């Protein structure tokens, strides 16, 4: 869309008038024909300039320069053409040339505010703040009663960290136009920045005195005091607001915050309830307040207040997704995960674009062990966020748990493609891909995934355990499997699962005596609650010639459950079945 600059347009018209004046002067001074440019040349310059304007308005800046330059060649001291060229080079992002032409224009006509403001703006962009301030000083000298120039100069001083000078400029502007909200805000910002909080507060008080009935001035003053840890001084301003307007929600909210910080919870809750009673306060603002309140609600009474407020909010705004999301947060904190998920689902149905809500839904699906729901919800999330690797990972995890390993591998590969290689999620994806490809008997891909995970984190317990155990089952890379298993039990000497893994690697390597030591420790640590560990213990006892004890352990393993499919045959035939 074309951007029409009115100030620029009027300056261009002035330029055309200047060119026309040259033509008029030509008529009156015919005796100087040889020294003056011909009327035809001036008309030609005007034509070139008009053509340049046309291309500028069409945003064809390169073409505009071409015609402006032709006009300038005829009238080289025309400030309007120089100004136009500066503007044009600014559009072309060539600030050096823009400054060059703006300087020339301002030198020729330093009374033109448009020229000065353009030059000052260009100086600021190049961080030539002193030069920009001098430009405004020149303009102020010619227009000492124009407040806008002092305000613009003050902004330059702020950029250059000359805060005292900025305050002087604002004060001069204020003398011209009186107490002004914008100038007061700027002065307060500067005063706070340089540590003069008391003076900033005085400025706010002056603004309030200029219009005592203006509630926003009192609100701003209270906010200034609160942000500078002067809470007790803020309270009278808020009370004054509530005398003028007892239903002012913002004042109630600010008082609630003050009372919460003072530990006066009953007063805090009461102020929040009064704020929520204000029908003019929109649902989004109320939701934002509730989020902040939830973070500070520690006692049961405050939590119950939050519950009551969010129920009121949902009743009044049933189609507001944030309200349902907040209610979900409260229910989750309470431990009612199923109800929390229901609220999150409502929020997602009303607004699918809330990333965190989908994450909460899917995580609760996993917590509730409702894996089919996790698949459905993660696929819905992927439709909305196809480039979010976390949702692909959750989808792959769900399919893995459903033993649909092909689908799991597809989703996990997409997750890996979308995930930065230096992230923690990348490790988790590779770890699960290792498990998935092992289940698909794609052992090379499995090993590559595990190796990638270990490269990022050599002490990843999940990978060290599963990789070493699967290698032992395949009777492959046993030295590597033993090294990983040994590292794992050194880190976790009391973990029965890890002890069993290392023992089984030793068993496959036919180091039965050492395997027995670790299996005995595993049985003790697991308190005989794992059929697999007890079955493995029986196997190693059989290898060591303790046949009766082996059968006894196999029978015990069968009672516990989760054993190999060969357990019944082992017991019946009283021997190992390979």
Automatic annotation (TrEMBL):
TPR repeats lie at residues 45-78, 113-146, 389-422, 427-460. Gene3D superfamilies: Tetratricopeptide repeat domain. Keywords: Repeat, TPR repeat. PANTHER family: CELL DIVISION CYCLE 16,23,27, CELL DIVISION CYCLE PROTEIN 27 HOMOLOG. This is Tetratricopeptide repeat protein.
């Amino acid at each position: 869309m074309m951007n029409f600059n009115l100030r620029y347009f009027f300056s261009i018209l002035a330029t055309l008038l200047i060119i026309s004046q040259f033509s008029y002067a030509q008529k009156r001074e015919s005796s100087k024909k040889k020294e003056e440019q011909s009327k035809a040349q001036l008309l030609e310059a005007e034509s070139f300039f008009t053509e340049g304007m046309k291309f500028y308005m069409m945003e064809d800046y390169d073409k505009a320069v071409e015609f402006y330059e032709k006009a300038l060649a005829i009238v080289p001291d025309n400030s309007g053409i120089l100004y136009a060229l500066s503007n044009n080079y600014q559009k072309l992002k060539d600030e050096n040339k823009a400054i060059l032409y703006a300087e020339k224009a301002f030198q020729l006509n330093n009374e033109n505010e448009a020229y000065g403001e353009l030059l000052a703006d260009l100086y600021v962009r190049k961080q030539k703040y002193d030069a920009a301030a001098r430009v405004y000083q020149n303009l102020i000298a010619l227009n000492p009663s124009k407040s806008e120039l002092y305000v613009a100069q003050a902004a330059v001083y702020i950029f250059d960290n000359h805060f005292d000078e900025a305050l002087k400029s604002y004060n001069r502007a204020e003398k011209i136009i009186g107490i002004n909200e914008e100038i007061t805000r700027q002065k307060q910002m500067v005063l706070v920045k340089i540590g003069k909080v008391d003076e900033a507060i005085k400025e706010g008080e002056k603004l309030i005195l200029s219009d005592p009935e203006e509630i926003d001035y009192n609100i701003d003053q209270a906010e200034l005091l609160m942000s500078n840890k002067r809470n007790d001084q803020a309270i009278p301003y808020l009370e004054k607001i509530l005398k003028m307007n007892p239903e002012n929600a913002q004042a109630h909210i600010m008082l609630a915050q003050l009372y919460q910080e003072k530990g006066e919870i009953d007063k805090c809750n009461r102020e929040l309830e009064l704020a929520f009673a204000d029908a003019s306060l929109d649902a989004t603002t109320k939701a934002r307040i509730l989020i902040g309140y939830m973070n500070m609600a520690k006692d049961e009474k405050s939590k119950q207040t939050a519950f009551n407020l969010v129920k009121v909010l949902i009743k009044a705004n049933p189609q507001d997704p944030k309200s349902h999301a907040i209610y979900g947060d409260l229910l989750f904190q309470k431990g009612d995960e199923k109800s929390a998920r229901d609220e999150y689902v409502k929020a997602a149905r009303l607004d699918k674009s809330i990333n965190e809500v989908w994450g909460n839904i899917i995580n609760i699906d996993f917590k509730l062990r409702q894996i089919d729901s996790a698949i459905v919800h993660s696929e819905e999330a992927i439709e909305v966020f196809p480039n979010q690797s976390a949702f692909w990972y959750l989808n792959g995890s769900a399919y893995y748990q459903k033993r649909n390993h092909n689908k799991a591998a597809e989703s996990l590969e997409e997750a890996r493609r979308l995930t930065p290689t230096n992230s923690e999620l990348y490790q988790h994806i590779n770890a699960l891909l290792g498990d998935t490809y092992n289940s698909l008997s794609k052992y090379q891909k499995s090993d590559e995934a595990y190796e990638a995970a270990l490269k990022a984190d050599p002490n990843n317990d999940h990978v060290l355990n599963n990789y070493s155990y699967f290698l032992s089952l395949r009777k492959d890379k046993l030295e590597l499997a033993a090294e990983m298993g040994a590292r794992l039990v050194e880190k976790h000497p009391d973990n029965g699962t890890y002890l069993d893994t290392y023992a089984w690697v030793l068993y496959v390597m036919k180091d039965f005596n050492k395997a027995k030591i670790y299996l005995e420790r595993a049985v003790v640590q697991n308190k005989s609650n794992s059929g697999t560990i007890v079955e493995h213990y029986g196997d190693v006892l059989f290898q060591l010639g303790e046949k009766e004890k082996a059968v006894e352990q196999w029978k015990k393993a069968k009672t516990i459950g989760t054993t190999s499919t060969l357990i019944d045959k082992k017991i019946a035939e009283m021997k190992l079945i390979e």
